[in-house]
Design a protein that fits this description.
Blueprint (H helix, E strand, L loop, with lengths): L3 H29 L11 E6 L9 E10 L4 E14 L8 E5 L10 E2 L6 E2 L6 E2 L16 E2 L1 E3 L6 E5 L15
Antiparallel strand pairs: 1-10, 2-3, 3-4, 4-8, 5-6, 6-7, 9-10
This protein binds FE2/S2 (inorganic) cluster.
């Protein structure tokens, strides 16, 4: 037989546990996904117009996305970047998009000082402008991203931004 004090104690315990779960679940979710990648992956994002890209010259573009956690909607902010390389007339795709995240350990890949190749400053992984590896530091080529061009006379270049698992030999999406 429950007395009033026991009922009160059990109610308080249940309420306390419910509150702890309400706080812990979003907190754990945030810790597991620190960038709050809601909205940062999987969607096509407009980067530029085709006329803004020069054939064979890589240009870096920041990927801007909104994110939100359980309580806060943050203003749009950079969540990554991509390299766009316009290909020669008639090539398919017309624009090559490469994730700027190094497949080795996810550092941002830059242009090498001679601007003829890509170089990752963290452990010196080196890549050609088509993304293929030039040394053995990275387990795979730079990750290509899907590109979509609009039908306009100066097409809008949109890229499907995704993240991929570092250190894997095969490209595997984290979205
Ligand atoms: S993270 Fe790029 S070489 Fe290691």
């Amino acid at each position: 037989m429950f007395n009033r004090r026991a009922v009160f104690r059990w109610s308080a315990l249940a309420l306390g546990n419910a509150f702890a779960l309400a706080v812990a679940i979003p907190g754990a979710k945030y810790l597991l996904d620190p960038l709050g990648k809601k909205g940062s992956g999987g969607a096509f994002r407009s980067m530029t117009r085709l006329s803004q890209l020069k054939v064979g010259e890589p240009q870096a573009f920041a990927v801007i996305a909104k994110r939100q956690d359980a309580w806060v909607r943050y203003p749009p902010e950079p969540v990554g970047s991509v390299w766009l390389i316009r290909q020669a007339e008639g090539a398919s795709p017309a624009v090559l998009a490469l994730s700027a995240e190094c497949p080795h350990l996810s550092c941002p890949v830059n242009l090498a000082p001679d601007r003829q190749t890509f170089l990752c400053p963290c452990h010196q992984a080196s890549f050609r402008f088509d993304g293929q590896t030039l040394n053995t530091v990275s387990p795979r080529a730079m990750d290509t991203l899907e590109v979509r061009l609009s039908d306009e006379s100066d097409p809008e270049v949109a890229v499907k931004f995704e993240r991929f698992q570092p250190q894997a030999r095969e490209k595997k999406s984290l979205v």
